[in-house]
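Methods: example folding runs. The two proteins below were folded one after another, and each record is reproduced exactly as written to the output file, sequence line first and structure-token line second.
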Amino acid sequence: MMPTRKNYSQNWLPSIFNDFFDNDWMVRANATAPAINVIESDKDYKVEVAAPGMTKDDFNIHLSEDNELVISMEKKNESKEEDKENKKYLRREFSYSKFEQRLVIPDDVEKENINANVSDGVLTIDLPKRTPEEKAKVNRVIEIH
């Protein structure tokens, strides 16, 4: 979609505020959130999170009490170049990124066997499915005595 140019005539100030808080602006502000793919096969679900430059230490993955897979990431970068004699910063750059995503786990996932790894800039979480026999055990009919 091509951006449109607004006509800021006499009421330019309210229009600027409307544009600033517009939903499209909010979507652009969240553009730093990593892309996520969810893939289903007969044997498992895979969650892929774009994570360029991230290591396994930058992630925290856990299961919540609400049966959600919680993926959080936090990355801090700081780069310094200083004058060694006078200790003045000639240049100092730092950045901070934080992200959290919650995904509801399907009932057929073996929660005990979920695993994850980071490779080539992608965090991959494998959620194996229960076998038909395991599903039958979980969904068994309970006899009333």
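Second run, written to the same file directly after the first:
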Amino acid sequence: MVFDKTQNYEREAEILKVLGHPIRLKIVAGLLSETCNVKKIWECLGLPQATVSQHLALLKNKGIIEGHRTGVEVYYAVTSDEARRIVKAVFDLSTQA
């Protein structure tokens, strides 16, 4: 067995842990297709704003997403290339099964 010594396994594992929650996985998958504000995210998920905000805060703290303010609204986008690749791989595998 050969391991890539240049690969950041700790960072990848941390991202996998964070994305292991269905709500956070849905949020990141949705943000891959478009930048959204908090209201649109919680409306699409059908969850209370407080719940969505907690998940967004964790994703932001882990460096997976970033928010930028436009007026009174905050728009979120995926900024982690690792998370982007992981989510795409998960959904590519699920469509092949």
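Comment on the second run: The longest helix spans residues 81-96.
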